[in-house]
Description:
mainly alpha
Amino acid sequence: MNSFTYVDLHRQVSFDIEKEMEAALLRLAPASGTSAAKNAVSKLLRHQKMRHPLSVLPMMVHAIETGDPGPAVPLSAVHLLWWTSACYLDDLADGHGTPASVSLDQNEALLASVLSGAVLPIQIIRSLPVPAAVQGALTAELATGWAVGVEGQLSDMDGDVENATRNSVITAYRGKSGGPYSMITAMAAILSGASDERVELWREFGYIFGILWQIFNDQEDVLSGRNEDLLNGTVTYLLTCALDDAPTPRAREELLGWCAAARHSEQARTELTRLLLAPDVLRPYAAELDAFRIEAHGLLTDLGGHEQHLPVMRHLVDQAAQMLLQEQLVPVSA
């Protein structure tokens, strides 16, 4: 049984990704080597440290297509830079900004996020030793990824909990998280020389993986006790499952009342969390999560590819699709 994981891959290639990032940052510096822009982006990268090393995702796609993950190292840097920018902008939209302990104020961070998410990825793409047509296709994917991701994020920010449904939340997830992942999987497929048909399959895989990873993040938020989604009024898939399946109109109104109060009350967040972790909510939630996992595995089966590398991607799908929440994790409040 192949127990090699994406984390193991990251350990092997992290030095290569770091060197690629250093080369990208040097493009911001003049001949003297000093640059306010370079320093600001470096600080932002330290501030927005990613908890999971998903920067290797494009390398995994390239390895499945060609047997060699190495040529996609620059796209791993693109992926890391893009998410550094997007995560900071997401924090800014939620009103968090940068903490005072970081030697980077909000205005500097905002400008650095523009460089990180747009300018540096384009420079990396332009530096690739590939035909101009391939560079053009990769740049187009970057632009599309931003457009789809922003559309999904704006839908998510609307926070219309009373009219939200499972389908509306998945549509938002497909944009705000699926869009960036579909961008990078499609870019890796294009770089590998895959056919248009395979590029589209990888694009769809990225969308489904993005949905899985967003649900994974939603669960981590609950388990951490931070409950930032409830604090920010974010409409999550778990919340819509509870609302859609509320046994009575009165029960639904009770949930909506706790949602409104949760933005300002820790007690309300505790009570709402208890309701969200009820068995009647979590059991269908787990089944629907598993359906997305099966869909992602089905796309990998359709794609096939190098058998040495395909199991690593399957393992990542299974990790993203874990059911982390447990029934009645939070005790009934007084």
